[in-house]
Amino acid sequence: MSDSKAPVTHEGVITAIGEETATVEIINKSACAACHAKGVCSASDEKVKEIEVPLTIANLSSHFQVGDKVLVVLSSSLSFKAVLYAYGVPLVLLLIALVVASACGLSELYVGLSGIGIVIFYYIALAFFKNKLAREFRFSIRKI
Predict the structure, then answer these.
(1) What is the pLDDT of residue 1?
(2) How far apart are CA 122 and CA 118, in angstroms?
(3) In b/e form, how buried is each residue of 76-106, taking b as 16+ CB within 10 angstroms?
(4) Which H helix or E strand runs over 95?
(5) Is the pTM of this model over 0.70?
(6) Residues paired with 141 in a beta bridge
(7) Among 129, 52, 125, 49, which residue's Cα sits nearest to residue 90?
(8) What digits encode the pLDDT tens for the residues 65-99?
(9) Regions of the chain with pLDDT less than 70
């Protein structure tokens, strides 16, 4: 059983260093990406993502160079909040929209469309707050 207080970590490589941020490239793998049959299976998924990590006193740019292998770290409390924003809130909104639309006597088509519409509206609203969320969800890096 894993420790619930353990931070979320991903291995990555520094691709660029600026005055205030470092760009780290990580490979996001699905659960089956390590399977021996992934070459012939369409279910395996592997995506390359770039993350901007702010450089603080604890991880000054002088300590890192382009090409360094690093560990990108997000605290466990912030990872829970990220999952809540990404999946929990939309699920609750979807269920509320379905119940309210059904209670109003709408047809199944409109009930379904209202559920989908409220979730789309939520993700569009979340995109407008992207910069605020980026300030809240701060990653840190450590050399491997």
Answers:
(1) 47
(2) 6
(3) eeeeebeeebeeeebeeebeebbeebeeeee
(4) helix 89-103
(5) no
(6) 72
(7) 125
(8) 888 888 888 777 787 888 899 999 999 999 999 99
(9) 1-4, 28-46, 57-62
